[in-house]
Every structure is written in structure tokens, then in C-alpha cells.
Design a protein that fits this description.
- With about 270 residues, the chain is α+β, with helices and mostly antiparallel strands.
- The protein contains 7 helices and 13 strands.
- The strands form 4 sheets. Strands 3, 4, 7, 8 and 9 form a 5-stranded antiparallel sheet that branches. A 4-stranded antiparallel sheet has the order 10-11-12-13.
- A hairpin with a 2-residue loop joins β7 and β8.
- α3 packs antiparallel against α4.
- The N terminus is likely disordered.
Length: about 270
């Protein structure tokens, strides 16, 4: 970093004038014999060179370095979507592992600019067989999409009750019936929970596999609580709640008095 240095010296004219004044003053000083003066005691000595350092550039560079070293926080643009977040719940047992992950609903735009739900969300169940102690082969995993209605059936299961769901992912297509998935929930003999058993028959890739995992009452309680929380979001009700504007609905009700439940309760 280069520093700015200034050296100041007295001009020659000042030195000559000071020397002349010294000669005149020395003649006048003879009037006072009791006092002796030396040129060093006079106030007109030649000033010593001095330097002046400008630190403005140093401070500017320090501020620049400090600002560049600080991490720049990204600012969210207007209308930007929030970052995607992945969540889930997993159960690990000796024979298999089970992971549950929610999938959001899908929406379709309307000509009016509004949106309607085109496909409900669901919870994806992934079963992986064990290949060792706390080791699971996720390449051989089998999946099952649990709908909102099926989640309600699981939540209402009693200690000795069972239920069963059948899925054909290719239903309505040319390969209908070639892939069969059956998910069973059966109570354990000792009443401590339920067996989750997924059987998959896929004739397209010649797969016939069954994976089961015991689920305790406590784990089933966690699933029920999770289902109860996520179900309104899978139905898209949160988007409706977030879009409510009191002014819009008041104008609609005033324009059509038969709109909504007010007319039903007031008649």
C-alpha cells in the first residue's frame, strides 16, 4: 500500500529575510550587554522537515476488504417460490425398513385465473428388505402410494382390526393387470402392534416379492398423528385458506344473497 508523504521546507526568501533580521537584531542586542543570545534561542530557526501520511486510502481498502470478505446473503425476488424441503419418517427393523414421504397435490389453472386441484396428494411408502444388521437394499425397494382415504382407514384401526388395500398402477392402460400391489395391515399375535405387509407382482419385469415389517403401537401412533396433520395439505385446503380475502367474499355474498351458507341459515 503506497502512502502519500509530504515534506515541507521553508522557502529561500524566508531564510534570507530571517538572516537579515538576525543581523539587525544582533546589532540591537548590543544594547543589552548583560544578556547573551544565540541563534538557537531565536524563534526563526529553520524548521525541520516533517512528513504527513494520508491514511484515507488505507481505511478505504480496509473497508473494501471487509465488505468483500462478508458473505452476501441472497435476497428473495418478488414472487419467488420457497425452497423445496424434504421430510419423512422411517422405521427400521431386523427384516425390513419402511420410509414414509408426503407428496404434494397438483393444481390446474382455470380460464378465470384461479386454480383447482387436479390430483390429491398422497404419502409414499417405501419398503426395503434387510441384507444384514441395520443394512437394507434400497435398490430392491417396493413402493405403495397411500391415499387420503386409505390413511383414514389406517388411523381408525383398532388393536385387533385389519385392513387391506389393492392397487393397479396401470389401471386403464394397455398393461392393466400386469402389476398388482396388495398392502395388508394385520394385528400382531401379542397385541403389541400391526404387521405391514406389501406384496408386489410385476409380470413386466418378472418380480414377485413380499416385504413385511412389524409396527408397534407407539410407531402407529406417530403415523396416525402425522397423517392427521398432513391430510388437509394433501387435499389442498391450505392453498384455499391462504387465498381467502375478506373483501372478495363480501362482494360475492352481496352480489348474490343465495351464495354460501348464509342463505340456508337465514331462510
Amino acid at each position: 500500500m503506497s502512502n502519500l508523504q509530504l515534506q515541507l521546507h521553508s522557502p529561500p526568501s524566508l531564510l534570507s529575510s530571517s538572516s537579515s533580521s538576525l543581523s539587525s537584531s544582533s546589532s540591537s542586542l548590543k544594547l543589552f550587554p548583560n544578556h547573551s543570545f544565540s541563534p538557537k534561542s531565536l524563534p526563526f530557526n529553520t524548521p525541520k522537515p516533517f512528513s504527513l501520511r494520508c491514511r484515507r486510502s488505507d481505511l478505504f481498502d480496509q473497508n473494501t476488504l471487509a465488505s468483500t470478505s462478508r458473505p452476501i446473503r441472497p435476497t428473495a425476488s418478488v414472487g419467488a417460490l420457497p425452497p423445496r424441503v424434504y421430510v419423512g419418517y422411517s422405521i427400521y427393523k431386523g427384516k425390513a425398513a419402511l420410509t414414509l414421504t408426503p407428496r404434494p397435490p397438483e393444481f390446474a389453472p382455470l380460464d378465470s385465473g384461479a386454480y383447482k386441484i387436479s390430483k390429491e396428494g398422497y404419502v409414499l411408502l417405501q419398503f426395503a428388505p434387510a441384507v444384514g444388521v441395520r443394512q437394507y437394499d434400497w435398490n430392491r425397494k417396493q413402493v405403495f402410494s397411500l391415499s387420503v382415504g386409505e390413511m383414514g382407514s389406517v388411523m381408525s384401526l383398532g388393536a385387533k382390526e385389519s385392513c387391506e388395500f389393492f392397487h393397479d398402477p396401470l389401471k386403464g392402460k394397455s398393461d392393466e393387470g400386469k402389476v398388482r400391489k396388495v398392502l395388508k395391515f394385520e394385528p400382531l399375535p401379542d397385541g403389541s402392534g400391526h404387521f405391514f405387509n406389501l406384496s408386489v407382482q410385476n409380470k413386466l419385469v418378472n418380480v414377485d416379492e413380499s416385504i413385511f415389517i412389524p409396527v408397534t403401537k407407539a410407531e402407529l401412533a406417530v403415523l396416525s398423528s402425522t397423517f392427521n396433520f398432513i391430510m388437509p395439505y394433501l387435499l389442498g385446503w391450505h392453498t384455499f385458506a391462504n387465498s381467502i380475502k375478506p373483501d372478495d367474499y363480501s362482494e360475492t355474498n352481496n352480489a348474490n344473497p343465495r351464495y354460501g351458507g348464509d342463505y340456508e341459515w337465514n331462510r
